[in-house]
TrEMBL record:
<dbReference type="GO" id="GO:0030659">
    <property type="term" value="C:cytoplasmic vesicle membrane"/>
</dbReference>
<keyword id="KW-0963">Cytoplasm</keyword>
<dbReference type="GO" id="GO:0005886">
    <property type="term" value="C:plasma membrane"/>
</dbReference>
<keyword id="KW-0343">GTPase activation</keyword>
<keyword id="KW-0968">Cytoplasmic vesicle</keyword>
<comment type="subunit">
    <text>Interacts with ARF6.</text>
</comment>
<dbReference type="GO" id="GO:0005096">
    <property type="term" value="F:GTPase activator activity"/>
</dbReference>
<dbReference type="GO" id="GO:0048666">
    <property type="term" value="P:neuron development"/>
</dbReference>
<keyword id="KW-0966">Cell projection</keyword>
<keyword id="KW-0597">Phosphoprotein</keyword>
<dbReference type="InterPro" id="IPR000195">
    <property type="entry name" value="Rab-GAP-TBC_dom"/>
</dbReference>
<protein>
    <recommendedName>
        <fullName>TBC1 domain family member 24</fullName>
    </recommendedName>
</protein>
<keyword id="KW-1003">Cell membrane</keyword>
<dbReference type="GO" id="GO:0098793">
    <property type="term" value="C:presynapse"/>
</dbReference>
<feature type="domain" description="Rab-GAP TBC">
    <location>
        <begin position="40"/>
        <end position="257"/>
    </location>
</feature>
<dbReference type="GO" id="GO:0034599">
    <property type="term" value="P:cellular response to oxidative stress"/>
</dbReference>
<dbReference type="InterPro" id="IPR053019">
    <property type="entry name" value="GATA_zinc_finger"/>
</dbReference>
């Protein structure tokens, strides 16, 4: 077993711990890294992927005081103590989001909650971050222990490069990303957009699920492939994949009656069962075939949407 096996239930994984020889990642050229990530170069080798994640995350520019593994070892005892983490309430900012178990064993499943609680303690400024449980659960598969996973997630959250958007941490950022996704659907997936408008009362509510499709509903083999690219290329890849999911949903479901009385539920179910219709390779191929706006244009769109929300006074989630 390799050193990154502690939290993995190998019966659920589609990669064996020893698959292939352990390659090292020596390339540092961004263009080459991009190609390797998109091709899934480290997808079939568990310990190689763990080392690549480690390397890419340790290169993220961060705030000077970013909590590390030692901080976790200090605070986990105070925060969790001898209590069972499953009995402790999770912070409001995860917004009752799904806590995917992916291919984690029982120790891994319990570790996800512990790490969320410790992050809430160290990042009081996070007010809305529904993607966090999924990111922690995914990274635990590639961590030697809880403290290492905590440090990696903290680096992603503490990224201070203004040109590198990683994970939304406020309701304003999250909601404006949903509006931006809606704008992109309207431009790049017009057939799917027409369907959404025809069958849903509130199309923005459907598009507000876009991050949940990725960080919650997608199976492990898919989100890991997306995360490979995300760590190299950033946030834009998330929009690409979500657009591709919608295109496939429309193609597979076109002309068929809805399976439930809610298109939102139908899309979630489609994404959850995506293995029946689309492979990870095809999903990524489709995602990269979309001639998307430049990163700069997406940033401007996002800023315009944030401004519109602020002018309406919508900066926190309204209680329903």
């Amino acid at each position: 077993m390799d050193e990154y096996s502690r939290f993995v239930d190998w019966d659920k994984m589609d990669v064996s711990p020893q698959s292939q020889d352990t390659k090292e990642l020596t390339c540092t050229d961004l263009h080459e890294l991009k190609q390797l990530a998109r091709q899934g170069y480290w997808a079939k080798n568990h310990s190689l992927r763990a080392k690549v994640y480690h390397k890419l995350i340790s290169n993220i520019p961060c705030r000077t005081v970013t909590p590390d593994a030692n901080v976790y070892r200090d605070i986990v005892v105070k925060i969790i103590g001898k209590r069972n983490s499953s009995s402790l309430p999770l912070p409001e900012f995860v917004d009752n989001s799904l806590i995917p178990t992916y291919c984690l064993n029982a120790e891994g499943i319990s570790a996800v909650r512990k790490i969320i609680l410790c992050i809430a303690n160290q990042f009081p400024d996070i007010s809305f971050c529904p993607a966090l449980p999924s990111v922690i659960a995914l990274l635990l598969h590639y961590s030697k222990d809880e403290a290492e996973c905590f440090e990696q997630v903290c680096r992603i959250l503490a990224c201070n490069d203004p040109s590198k958007r990683l994970i939304d941490q406020t309701f304003l950022a999250f909601e404006s990303s949903c509006m931006t996704f809606g704008d992109l659907v309207n431009k790049y997936c017009q057939a799917a957009h027409k369907l959404m408008v025809a069958v849903s009362e509130d199309v923005l509510e459907v598009y507000s699920d876009w991050q949940r499709w990725l960080f919650g509903e997608l199976p492990m083999a898919y989100i890991a492939r997306i995360f490979d690219v995300f760590l190299v290329e950033g946030y834009k890849v998330l929009y690409r994949v979500a657009l591709a999911l919608l295109k496939f949903f429309h193609k597979v479901r076109a002309g068929q009656p809805m399976e439930s009385d809610s298109i939102q539920q139908d899309i979630r179910a489609f994404v959850r069962d995506i293995t029946k219709s689309v492979s990870p390779e095809r999903l990524l191929e489709k995602a990269f075939a979309i001639r998307l706006f430049s990163r700069k244009e997406i940033q401007l769109l996002q800023m315009a949407n944030e401004k519109a929300l602020q002018q309406k006074g919508i900066t926190v989630k309204q209680k329903r």
